[in-house]
Structures are given as C-alpha cells and as structure tokens.
Amino acid sequence: MATQSLSRTETRPVAIIDFAASCLPEAGESYPIEVALAKVDGSTRSWLIRPAAEWRYWDWSPEAEHLHGISRTMLSERGQHPQQVLDELMAEAAGCEVYADCDLDAYWLEVLAQACGCAAPFRVRYLGELLCARGVSRGDVVAALDRAGRLLPSEPVARGDASRLALAVRLLAPVG
Description:
Blueprint: E1 14-21, E2 32-39, E3 44-48, H1 62-68, H2 72-78, H3 82-93, E4 97-100, H4 103-115, E5 124-126, H5 127-133, H6 138-151, H7 157-172
Parallel strand pairs: 1-4, 4-5
Antiparallel strand pairs: 1-2, 2-3
C-alpha cells in the first residue's frame, strides 16, 4: 500500500464531507438531511438537518429513509436549523481543504447554503483528484477502504462514510 507523506506544498488539513439526502438522485429533487465532516486527523462531526421551509414539497423516498435510518419525524424532533448547521459546518471546515467522493455532496452543500440565503461557503473538491495527485493506485484505494471499514465501528451513513474515507486517506498518505 502507498505510504507517501503529504506534499510539503499541502499545508491545509484535509477533511472529507458527506451528505445524506431525502431521496436517491434518480427519485427526484432531494435536499440534505444529514451532513458529516471528518478530518484526516480522526475528528468527525455530524449534524441532522431540519428541513427548510422551501424544501417542504421536495421529494422524500422510503428507500432513502431506510438506507440512512433517518425519518422525517427524527428530523423535525432532533434536526438542527439549516443556518445553525451551516454555521457550525463552516467553523469545523475552516482552514481545511474539503473533499468528497461524489459531486452530489457539493450540490447538497449549495442547497443547504441557498436555504440560508448565501452561496456555498467553501469549495468541495473531488477526492479522486487528491489521491491521483499523490500517485495512489485504484488497488491501494480499495485496500485502504476495506481496512478502514474493518477498523471503524458502524455509524450513521454520512458520519460513517466520511470517517471511513478520511481514515482511508490517512492510511494512504499518513500525515507526517
């Protein structure tokens, strides 16, 4: 497995963002219901997002609810207001280069920010670009994800996915 160090030109810490949404992309217009940010140093935060008023008539699918284990009732009872989530997410991501394994995560960040009346507060880059720039092979990525999956406990979908990806990045290119 690759054991390259972080490039000396990379001075900002790496963080992985992952969203869970109200429906699967092919099922309609979705909105974010959970977001997690996992830093390569091992720290992770996640937030349940109470639906914004403008999302009231957007799509909700039973498949996504089952996949994520998050119901509408759970969001209304335990979800945080979108502005609070965005503020805390921005504070947590401050100073980091933020990556995701899917371009939908950048889209859902935009949807969250628009509900708060602003533009996305930071850029979400594609994780493959980082790994490619570090010369990591597909086989190394698969092995690191497998190992990360065995090392981490099962968590809710967004938090678990972000944590697993951040650990895989750390395994592939240890901070040093």
